[in-house]
């Protein structure tokens, strides 16, 4: 006796509980409201592969999560990109709750501009100060959004320093998604609310985020690559530092270039 899968139309023996091709259940009943809600809740809370379990595992097992996921335990963990997209959504939500910094009146904060006689020079100086203000306001709110853009570069750095680890670029990228994701989550739900509450904006919050990433990335890679000696941990810490320093240099040069040039009028 054969049954036909209603999802992928593969024929299989009737006593099977799941389709051997696509793993859909063989015994389906009409959809109910309960099914939809159950499915959604399940997605986040499933005992071993849910979103919340992944967060717990990223704290308790750290790099072992990436090790196991990459080496075959694909169903055990919440998928990396889905995880990252949810983290981005949480981050953007929290970031919009903070009170926006007000746009500064450049002529008031920098009265010396009024002494510039040449009107062309004056307009240019005003534009530079305005872009500086804009960049400061953008960065204090969305500096972590830039951490997301750091993923391709950081995977490259870890791949270069750990070429002998036999992981390809994409596998380093997956490890990077898990470790950057959890750091952004900690920033969004702990550091950012604390900074709103205690009123330390901008720099201290970013420094805290950097220290968090520096230490977590090192511990994460130490576990991910199954290392066990102090020297290997020191190397992980060093690579983590190089990675962050490179990113900080690159992004701050980009910001500086924007302030000076305005990207040739591309962004004003
Ligand atoms: Zn099927």
TrEMBL record:
Keyword terms, alphabetized: Membrane, Transmembrane, Transmembrane helix
Origin: domain of life: Bacteria
Pfam families recorded: DUF3667
Keyword S-adenosyl-L-methionine: no
Membrane-spanning ranges: 81-99, 142-161, 173-199, 205-224, 236-259
The name this protein goes by in its record: DUF3667 domain-containing protein
Species this chain originates from: Flavobacterium caeni
């Amino acid at each position: 006796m054969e049954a036909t899968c209603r999802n992928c139309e593969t024929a299989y023996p009737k006593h099977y509980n799941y389709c051997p091709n696509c793993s859909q259940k063989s015994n389906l009943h009409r959809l109910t409201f309960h099914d939809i809600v159950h499915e959604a809740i399940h997605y986040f809370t499933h005992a071993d592969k849910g979103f919340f379990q992944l967060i717990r595992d990223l704290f308790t097992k750290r790099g072992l999560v990436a090790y196991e996921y990459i080496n075959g335990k694909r169903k055990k963990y919440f998928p990396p990109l889905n995880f990252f997209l949810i983290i981005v959504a949480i981050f953007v939500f929290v970031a919009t709750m903070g009170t926006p910094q007000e746009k500064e009146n450049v002529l008031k904060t920098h009265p010396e501009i009024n002494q510039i006689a040449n009107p062309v020079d004056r307009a240019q100086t005003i534009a530079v100060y305005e872009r500086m203000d804009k960049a400061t306001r953008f960065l204090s709110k969305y500096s972590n959004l830039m951490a997301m853009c750091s993923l391709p570069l950081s995977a490259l750095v870890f791949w270069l320093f750990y070429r002998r680890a036999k992981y390809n670029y994409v596998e380093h990228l997956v490890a990077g998604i898990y470790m950057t994701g959890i750091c952004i989550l900690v920033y969004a739900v702990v550091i950012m609310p604390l900074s709103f509450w205690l009123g330390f904006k901008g720099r201290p919050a970013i420094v805290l985020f950097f220290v968090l990433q520096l230490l977590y990335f090192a511990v994460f890679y130490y576990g991910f690559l199954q290392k066990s000696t102090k020297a290997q941990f020191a190397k992980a810490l060093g690579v983590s530092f190089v990675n962050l320093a490179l990113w900080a240099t690159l992004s701050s040069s980009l910001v500086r270039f924007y302030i000076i040039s305005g990207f040739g009028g591309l962004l004003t």
